[in-house]
């Protein structure tokens, strides 16, 4: 399957880049934990004529005519989101995860209000009140971290900060959190200080949908998520909430923050939610977790220092200090070897954020291709040999890994990519 024949005719230069990207995604081992492979059906929805329509407003309440098909598409996405996650209300219009979080601020807080979130270098997200983000510049960001010994969120610290600072919003969730989030404990703290609890499940939405991570829905006032990470949908986001907050959330997204929704994305979200409701997706979610656990064990066996000592979910964070290789050096060498991941800060990192001590990896994309726990020793070997090669500057070793990776990946065609 390839949808690029028109581009090949009109813009060969761009078409060549798209084909090169298809090859890159096909023959590398993609370990970036926020990335995945969307299905051909999801990609098709995203390239559909729905993108030609303007439809500011919500189904049945639009500012433009000609919504005969757009309204049912958005209703499909909304109803599937509500049913899959057990939510009373869903807004599927946020352009991406960051605007979804900004909409939550707009709905529940005023500039200058205090917001409590996990700090970026400890594993939180920019939009949880970090200084360089609009959320940290327009709001008073107070940040919690992890326990220095356990590497796990320190709920005593969260509670102490909440009691002292009385935040309007409390965010839980993040981008480098390898352990189960205790939504019930966060809810208890939020209730004690009368704060709005926001569970940002951008990374783990697919695991929640597939029953491989506890759901925040019974506990959080608001749940935000991207749709393109473990959920395997298009680039987009959703806000799930109880009926009592439906109006303020909807008004914050439109007209508060955005104009017309991206209807082709809405359609892609509907397709992805339908896929995520199938039994095969439950199996996928559990396989993602099993693969990450197996990979973590293999890495521990090879002397790697994992933040929190392992993982409960799809994500592994490695502190490379004991291997004497900076995160960026390791990530760049592994990229040459066809093993694609990202450098990352580790908690209490003594190095600078743009040159940190760690690498972050995860199993969502490789699991979408059908790799199982049986392949994790090979994956750990490639990482280990790549890190050793990075240490020695051994380019030949990286080339050998590249060839082995290419060979394995050829046996596991990726969803959404052309097979030839
Ligand atoms: C990815 C992510 C976001 C932001 O999503 P974008 O679509 O990149 O804007 C927000 N919060 C968390 C926890 C994330 O992991």
From TrEMBL:
Spell out the protein name for this chain. Answer: Serine hydroxymethyltransferase
Q: What GO biological process terms does the UniProt entry carry, in alphabetical order?
A: glycine biosynthetic process from serine; methylation; tetrahydrofolate interconversion
Q: Where does (6S)-5,6,7,8-tetrahydrofolate bind?
A: 120, 124-126, 243
Q: Which InterPro entries match?
A: PyrdxlP-dep_Trfase (IPR015424), PyrdxlP-dep_Trfase_major (IPR015421), PyrdxlP-dep_Trfase_small (IPR015422), Ser_HO-MeTrfase (IPR001085), Ser_HO-MeTrfase-like (IPR049943), Ser_HO-MeTrfase_PLP_BS (IPR019798), SHMT-like_dom (IPR039429)
Give the keywords, sorted. Amino-acid biosynthesis, Cytoplasm, Methyltransferase, One-carbon metabolism, Pyridoxal phosphate, Transferase
Q: NCBIfam families per the record?
A: PRK00011.1 (NF000586)
The EC code for this enzyme is: 2.1.2.1
Q: Which organism is it from?
A: Wenjunlia vitaminophila (Streptomyces vitaminophilus)
Give every Serine hydroxymethyltransferase-like domain span.
8-383
- Annotated site residues (Plays an important role in substrate specificity) in this chain: 228
The protein's job, in short, is:
Catalyzes the reversible interconversion of serine and glycine with tetrahydrofolate (THF) serving as the one-carbon carrier. This reaction serves as the major source of one-carbon groups required for the biosynthesis of purines, thymidylate, methionine, and other important biomolecules. Also exhibits THF-independent aldolase activity toward beta-hydroxyamino acids, producing glycine and aldehydes, via a retro-aldol mechanism. Thus, is able to catalyze the cleavage of L-allo-threonine.
The entry sums up its family as follows: Belongs to the SHMT family.
| Lineage start | Bacteria, Bacillati, Actinomycetota, Actinomycetes, Kitasatosporales
Q: Which domain of life is it from?
A: Bacteria
Q: Where on the chain is N6-(pyridoxal phosphate)lysine found, per UniProt?
A: 229
Q: Which reaction does it catalyse?
A: (6R)-5,10-methylene-5,6,7,8-tetrahydrofolate + glycine + H2O = (6S)-5,6,7,8-tetrahydrofolate + L-serine
Quaternary context: Homodimer.
Q: Where in the cell is it found?
A: Cytoplasm
Q: Name one GO molecular function term.
A: pyridoxal phosphate binding
Q: What SUPFAM superfamilies does the record tag this protein with?
A: PLP-dependent transferases
In what pathway does it function?
A: Amino-acid biosynthesis; glycine biosynthesis; glycine from L-serine: step 1/1; One-carbon metabolism; tetrahydrofolate interconversion
Essential cofactor(s): pyridoxal 5'-phosphate
Gene Ontology CC? cytosol
């Amino acid at each position: 399957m390839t949808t690029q024949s028109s581009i090949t005719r009109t813009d060969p230069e761009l078409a060549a880049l798209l084909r090169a990207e298809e090859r890159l995604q096909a023959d590398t081992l993609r370990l970036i934990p926020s990335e995945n492979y969307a299905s051909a059906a999801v990609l098709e929805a995203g390239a559909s004529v729905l993108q030609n329509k303007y439809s500011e407003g919500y189904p049945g309440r639009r500012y433009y005519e000609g919504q005969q098909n757009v309204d049912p598409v958005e209703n499909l996405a909304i109803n599937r989101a509500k049913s899959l996650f057990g939510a009373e209300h869903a807004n599927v219009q946020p352009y991406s995860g960051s605007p979804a979080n900004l909409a939550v601020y707009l709905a529940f807080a005023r500039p200058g209000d205090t917001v409590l979130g996990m700090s970026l270098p400890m594993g939180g997200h920019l939009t949880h009140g970090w200084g360089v983000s609009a959320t940290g510049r327009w709001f008073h960001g107070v940040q919690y971290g992890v326990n220095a010994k356990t590497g796990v969120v320190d709920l005593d610290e969260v509670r102490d900060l909440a009691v002292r600072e009385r935040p309007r919003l409390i965010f839980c969730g993040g981008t480098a959190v390898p352990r189960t989030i205790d939504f019930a404990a966060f809810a208890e703290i939020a209730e004690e200080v009368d704060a709005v609890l926001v569970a940002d499940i951008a990374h783990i939405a697919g695991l929640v949908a597939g029953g491989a991570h506890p759901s925040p829905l019974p506990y959080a006032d608001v749940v935000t998520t991207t749709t393109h990470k473990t959920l395997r949908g298009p680039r987009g986001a959703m806000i799930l909430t109880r009926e009592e907050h439906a109006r303020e959330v909807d008004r914050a997204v439109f007209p508060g923050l955005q104009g017309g929704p991206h209807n082709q994305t809405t359609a892609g979200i509907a397709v992805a939610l339908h896929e995520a409701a199938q039994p095969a997706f439950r199996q996928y979610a559990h396989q993602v977790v099993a693969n990450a656990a197996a990979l973590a064990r293999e890495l521990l066996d090879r002397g790697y220092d994992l933040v929190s000592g392992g993982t409960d979910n799809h994500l592994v964070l490695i502190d490379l200090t004991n291997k004497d290789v900076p995160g960026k050096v390791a990530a760049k060498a592994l990229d040459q070897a066809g093993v694609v991941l990202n450098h990352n800060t580790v908690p209490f990192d003594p190095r600078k954020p743009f040159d940190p001590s760690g690498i972050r990896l995860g199993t969502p994309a490789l699991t979408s291709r059908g790799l199982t726990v049986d392949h994790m020793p090979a994956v750990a070997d490639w990482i280990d040999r790549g890190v050793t090669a990075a240490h020695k500057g051994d380019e030949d070793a990286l080339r050998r890994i590249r060839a082995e990776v290419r060979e394995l990946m050829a046996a596991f065609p990726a969803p959404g990519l052309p097979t030839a």
